[in-house]
Write a structure and sequence with these properties.
Six copies of one chain form a homohexamer.
Chain A lengths: L13 H17 L5 H11 L3 H21 L5
Chain lengths: ~80, ~80, ~80, ~80, ~80, ~80
């Protein structure tokens, strides 16, 4: 990907770190399915499916582990 | 999200940390499905499905690893 | 939850730590489905399903990582 | 469980550690389904299902992380 | 595999690390299914399936934990 | 298992470490399904299924975390 979208794992706050984890989860999808149109269409479905939402939250949780460690847990 | 919902990963007790892990799991869902009405409707279904509940517990477990580490395991 | 159910991650033995990991996995479910009656009904089903049991064991494994770390691996 | 089945996470070799990880995975199942008869019946099915076997291997991998850390990676 | 495809886990930037994590996820598939033709055919399907994309993103997230740690989180 | 198949987690290169992670994933299956004939038959199916391949790659990723840590990330 020629676009620069990830310069650092450092964030000012835990919440910004959580939101970076969400971005990482979405970019993990985007590298496999680059079409915005297809991803938006799929989102309409899985946003109404409880198990799909839980699975999405799990990917965020894994990425949040990485971001939190990178930031020394904002202590 | 403009609302501030995560200021720190530090909690006073392990149980409060576990409950923060639950909040993180739910926020991971909320960022994908912001509608309270939809999430409540979906919860009625998956709260009666054993595999959905196990999956939810897994996301909590992953987030609890993060919170526990942030708190030095409350030792 | 007003009841205090998790005071410490410290246990005397690895086996007690494993059993705490099981409790954490179950509490992860209980926070989503508080009804004892519903959980017991669901258990009758998933306790006879191999994939459900494997998934349950996975949540225990993740929680056991946390508990083992908290206890310095009982070395 | 009154039986003592886990006294230590320390093993002499990496392979013994991997086999302990398998035992942990199976005990995670046994605590939910204590009946030997039921577990043996279920095994006959999932041992012929590729996805079930992959899931079982994943639980072993997670437990092996714990055991390997406990043993300083046998270095 | 006789081809050398992984010489180091070190990357110059977090984004390059994320892209290495993607490569690791794909190589994990390639070792099981070496045929480029089969993998390309399968990709056409799962790139249109939300749950498959989430699962792929999860493998990337796990590998990104490894790569980020190897690089000291690029701090 | 009386055969010695895992003497060390140390490898010379990251790629050899990745290939050891694959071996660990396969051995996690073999302990549950020891029959070479059955495993080969199952592989023919799941090697053509995208979700099965992603799941296999995930187990490799988890084991690779362990192997990479054991080798100090080959730095």
């Amino acid at each position: 990907m020629t676009e620069i979208w990830l310069k650092t794992l450092t964030t000012d706050t835990p919440q910004a770190g959580f939101e970076l984890a969400i971005k990482l989860a979405r970019m993990g999808v985007k590298y496999t399915q680059p079409s915005d149109e297809v991803r938006n269409r799929l989102r309409a479905d899985y946003a109404e499916n409880a198990d799909s939402l839980t699975a999405a939250s799990q990917v965020v949780a894994i990425n949040f582990q990485t971001v939190a460690t990178a930031n020394g847990y904002w202590r």
